[in-house]
Write a structure and sequence with these properties.
alpha/beta, 6-stranded mixed β-sheet, 4-stranded antiparallel β-sheet, 9 helices, 10 strands, globular, binds adenosine-5'-diphosphate
Length: about 240
């Protein structure tokens, strides 16, 4: 089932054209990656789908709801984790999740329990956030983003800046979330990680999608060993 349908999306900042007519779909239970170098327009596209930026032209539909017409309804279905998200340093991990869970109408205790399970911080969940490593903080934030069981999770560079072990843990969490039926839309400039992480990817450069498909399909198509090689060939 199609969860997200983005058609000819354009987003300008004044005279800067950040996203220049991008189209893609994400199905429920699927991990779809917008992959490209810094400045390609990934964050801008994700922020538009998250209802945080206004569409210049084109359309975004989430579960058949037009984002322009009913952004409030869309906000109930999605969860967005910005790349630079932070948590309140003086709260414990558990108190932070509880604080966030209070904003939702659903059963707070259930939400917090799922958040704790996803973050998987063991006893450290009762330590203050400012004692956490970067990897632990990201796990807490990913737990926060996914504990509401969103129909669509939008994750901007979820593994960036993490060591290999922490990045691997985050990837596993994302995979498990998709298995529960959530559609995942993520961005990454790390072209070597997406082969494992994403079911389908769109390569984006200078605001335009230049290639799209399953990682394996693209590597075969370009006789490439990895997605980085595919990207280099496509933009050459
Ligand atoms: P990415 O996430 O792929 O690194 P961005 O979406 O952040 O790319 O940026 C795409 C383009 O839009 C870049 O040229 C960037 O400089 C520009 N841009 C991003 N945010 C703003 C903004 N708030 N105002 C003006 N230009 C912006």
């Amino acid at each position: 089932m199609i969860s997200v349908e983005v058609k000819n999306l354009v987003k300008n900042y004044g005279s800067t054209e950040a996203v220049k007519g991008v189209s893609f779909t994400v199905n429920s239970g699927e991990i779809f990656g917008l992959i490209g170098p810094n400045g390609a327009g990934k964050t801008t596209a994700l922020r538009v789908v998250s209802t945080l930026l206004q569409i210049t032209s084109g359309s975004v539909n989430i579960l058949g709801i037009d984002l322009r017409k009913k952004p409030d309804e869309i906000r109930k279905l999605i969860s967005y984790l910005p790349e630079d998200a932070g948590a309140y340093k003086n709260l414990t991990g558990r108190a932070y999740l509880r604080f966030i869970a209070n904003f939702f109408e659903k059963n707070t205790q259930e939400i917090v329990s799922l958040g704790i399970e996803i973050a998987n911080l063991g006893d450290k969940i009762d330590d203050k956030v400012d004692t956490y490593s970067k990897g632990m903080k990201r796990r807490l934030l990913v737990g926060r983003a996914l504990m509401i069981n969103p129909k669509l999770a939008i994750l901007d560079e979820p593994t960036s800046g993490l060591d290999v072990i922490s990045a691997q843990e985050i990837r596993k969490i994302i995979k498990n979330t998709a298995m529960r039926g959530t559609a995942v839309l993520l961005s990454s400039h790390n072209m070597l990680e997406v082969e494992y992480l994403c079911d389908r990817i769109a390569l984006i450069a200078e605001g335009k999608i230049v290639e799209e498909g399953k990682p394996k399909f693209l590597m075969d198509k370009y006789s490439a060993n990895n997605i980085e090689e595919v990207f280099v060939q496509v933009v050459k």
